[in-house]
Every structure is written in structure tokens, then in C-alpha cells.
Write a structure and sequence with these properties.
Order of helices and strands: EEHEHEHEEHHEHEEHHEHH
Number of domains: 1
Bound molecules: S-adenosylmethionine
CATH architecture: 3-Layer(aba) Sandwich
Largest sheet: 8 strands, mixed
Strand content: 15-25%
Radius of gyration: 18 Å
Number of helices: 10
CATH superfamily: Vaccinia Virus protein VP39
CATH topology: Rossmann fold
Shape: globular
Structural class: alpha/beta
Number of strands: 10
Length: about 300
Amino acid sequence: MRSTETTTISAPWPPDDRPVAVTRFNGLDIESDGPSCVAQDRVFPLFDDESLLLAAALDPAPDTSVLDVGTGSGILALAAAQRGATVLATDVNPRAIACARHNTDANGFANSIKILHADVYTGLDRGKLDLIVANPPFLPTPPELELLLTSGGGPYGTRIVSPLIADARAMLRDGGRFVCLAVSFGSPGSSVAQQLVESAFSDGDDVRVRDIYGSSISVDRLLDLYARWHSITSWRRMLADHGLTELHYVLIEASKATPLPAPRAVQLPPESTFAGSWDARFRRYEAWFSALDCTVWVPRSRGEADALPHYL
Ligand SMILES: C[S@@+](CC[C@H](N)C(=O)[O-])C[C@H]1O[C@@H](n2cnc3c(N)ncnc32)[C@H](O)[C@@H]1O
């Protein structure tokens, strides 16, 4: 794979001004910023129903070529490399690149993971990848809010998700797969994510958008939360005008020109894992993760986590 620009931007890792969080996952020790860090350039903390969920679910075949877009700490790249894949990991945040390089070296995967500074697919070769995986910034955010690089998805949550999906097919080789988490407006079957992925992939491709929590998140809950800090009147009106009242936390999967293989490329915990109170969910997460030899680290209070997705 041709390399994109070699970054000259650098940042120290470990940082000298912030505490480092260490998460043990599947025998890997992975450093990141801690859950209380809300700096614009934070390295994404490892949350159990996001980075860890996707990392545990990934199952690339050995000797395949994987791209991890927006690698952060490098968790998804490391999970793929552990399974024998060759990985290119990219990010636009120099702190994330430094952290991912540290984690890659410290866990003994420097030979199978290459980490580059790149904006989505800019500068990367097309048609060469077996798997693209991403946990991009997807949170719908008021237009006037300064975005956290890890999370801010713009008013519709599609700032990065949209270009990521639009060019995914061109980046894959035949039979290659695309796997991405997102928060999507709309109802299952006709969500924004579904429309984006259906228009980017072709008739002969296999496309699936799964609702991870199995239930919608009311847009009002999100708006009411933001309203504590910002004036969001115009954004509220804009969403209402488009009839966008529901959000879903989804896993987007698409494969180019061949049906998704069986067993499914991405194994999610049973749907029941996501139902019910946070306490009940937490116990089910623990059971699911313990089978995978992972330490579940729940970074915020369970009450908070139950109220809304954690990445706010
Ligand atoms: C939600 S974090 C996920 C980090 C990691 N993959 C994980 O699952 O823990 C999103 C990452 O995307 C990176 N990012 C944001 N905009 C990007 C862009 N335009 N191109 C590539 N990466 C980007 C952020 O710096 C951040 O590291």
C-alpha cells in the first residue's frame, strides 16, 4: 500500500500534562486519555459499548489488509493485528498518532501496524483493502459548537461518516468489507446511515445497518442536554423541519460484490445485552467481555451512562 504523507507533526506520548488511562483488552495494555479528559485533541478513552465492543467483535481473516480510520489509541488496529491482519491506521490528531505508535510498539505489533496522518482516505491507494473499520466522530453536534475531534459529527452526525461511507467501496478490493459505528437520525430501515450506505454501494453488494441498542434515542434528550450549555434554538428548528426526531446507535456493514460471509464477520453480543437498566446491561457486558478476556472499564457513573450515550 502506498503511504500517504509522512507526518512531520509530532506530540509526546505519554503526555506530560495529563494522566494516562490504561485499559487491558484481550491481553493488550492500551493507553489513552482518561474518561474525564474533554480536551479538543484528546485520545479517545476506551468505552465498553464503543471501542471495546467493536474491537472484540472484529474478526478479520489472517493475512488480510485492514484500514483503521481514526485510530485514536490504536485499539481497533491492534485487535485486527492480533488476529493476523496487516493494518494501516490513520488519524488527523498528532496526539492520537503518538499514542497509537506507543501502544503498537509496547504491545509488540510495530511490524504489522503502520500509522499515518491522513484525513479519512486522502492519499491512500484505492481498491486494495480487505477490511475498513472505523469508529468515527459521529455525534450530532450544534453547528456553533466547537467540536471534539473524537466525537463531533456536525449537525447531522455525518461530517466524517458521510465521506467515509461514500468512498468506502472504491477503497475496497472485490469481496472487501466496511464496518463502522455511527449514531444515525431516522428510523431503522430508513435511517440516514441506511440511505448513505445504500447509495454508496451497489445492487450486488450486501449492506446491513444494525441497531445496537435495539431502541431509539429521542432527539429531544440530546437537545435538552446540549441546551444546558448552548443556545440551540436554530438547530432544534432545523432538525424538526426535517422531521428528525429519532436517533439510533448503529453498526453499519457493507461488503463489496459478495454476500457477507458466514459466520458473520462481526459478532455482536446478543441484543438482550443492550436492553434494560444500566446495571443489568453492565452485568451482561461483563459476562460477554469476560468470555473474551477483557477488563470492562466503565468510565462514568452508571446513572449517567444510562441517561444518554456516554460520548457527550
Ligand atoms: C471516536 S474516536 C475513535 C478512536 C478509536 N478508533 C477507538 O475506537 O477508540 C474517533 C477518531 O477519529 C479521528 N478523526 C477525526 N476526524 C478525522 C478525519 N477527518 N480523518 C481521520 N481521523 C479522524 C479522531 O482524532 C479520533 O481519534
